[in-house]
Design goal:
12 strands, alpha/beta, 3-stranded mixed beta sheet, Spore Coat Polysaccharide Biosynthesis Protein SpsA, Chain A, 21% strand, globular
Length: 225
């Protein structure tokens, strides 16, 4: 499942001649082991989805008020017989087929997420800016997507979340709450998440390099709103 699970518009910003969301979705629609792709969008976008998204042949589902609700809406579209669900952030446009393979191949009944080791010195900081402690970075990994989950277990975890009103920043966090096992596989440093304007600048440079161009193309957004 690939999802744009919030009201943000960064998924429509252009990288060269394609929106970020198209870059994020295409590795899944073209992957031989992915059978269905569901894209979760804000409700207003579902009413009039962009044409380029319809051309990718994906199912389009309206999101909820929170990220967790949005993922749950996407899961509801999938058939009960689904074995494995991959949850991917629409703001990560450079997921590779190799990374998707790694997540799929590494599952043994547990949830699997890609992650990369922290390389900077990490500080725990109080609200007033005082450093409280230095965190051992050898134990810290930075989570990425796609995250892979046994479908029945993921749907059950989301039922618990709905019952208790939980909202989490990723579905691995939901599994942690219910005490289910989550394993890590090696992620990809280029599998970046676009959060700030600076990230989009970096992504355009990386997209240009991937397309073999010396200069990134920066055009107006493909979808307004």
């Amino acid at each position: 499942m690939a999802g744009a699970t919030g009201p943000t518009r960064k998924q429509y910003a252009l990288l060269l001649d394609e929106p970020v969301l198209a870059w994020a979705v295409r590795p899944f629609t073209g992957h031989p082991r992915v059978r269905e792709v569901v894209v979760v969008l804000p409700a207003a976008d579902v009413e009039t989805p962009p044409g380029w998204l319809l051309e990718l042949g994906v199912a389009i589902v309206a999101g909820g008020r929170t990220r967790t609700e949005s993922v749950r809406n996407g899961l509801a579209w999938l058939a009960d017989a689904t074995e494995l669900a991959l949850i991917h952030d629409a703001a990560r446009p450079f997921v590779s087929a190799e990374l998707i393979d790694r997540v799929i191949a590494s599952r043994d009944g547990a949830a699997v997420i890609p992650a990369i080791r922290a390389t900077d010195t990490l500080k725990q900081v109080a609200d007033d800016g005082r450093i409280l402690s230095t965190i051992d970075r050898g134990t810290v990994w930075m989570a990425q997507t796609p995250q892979g989950f046994p479908f029945a277990a993921l749907r059950a975890a989301h039922a618990e979340a709905a019952l208790h009103g939980w909202d989490v920043t990723d579905d691995a966090g939901l599994f942690e709450r219910i005490g289910a096992a989550v394993r890590v596989v090696e992620g990809d440093p280029e599998n970046m998440k676009i959060t700030r304007p600076f990230d989009l600048d970096v992504a355009r440079l990386l997209a240009a390099r991937r397309r073999g161009r010396s200069e990134p193309v920066n055009r107006p957004p493909a979808h307004s709103g």
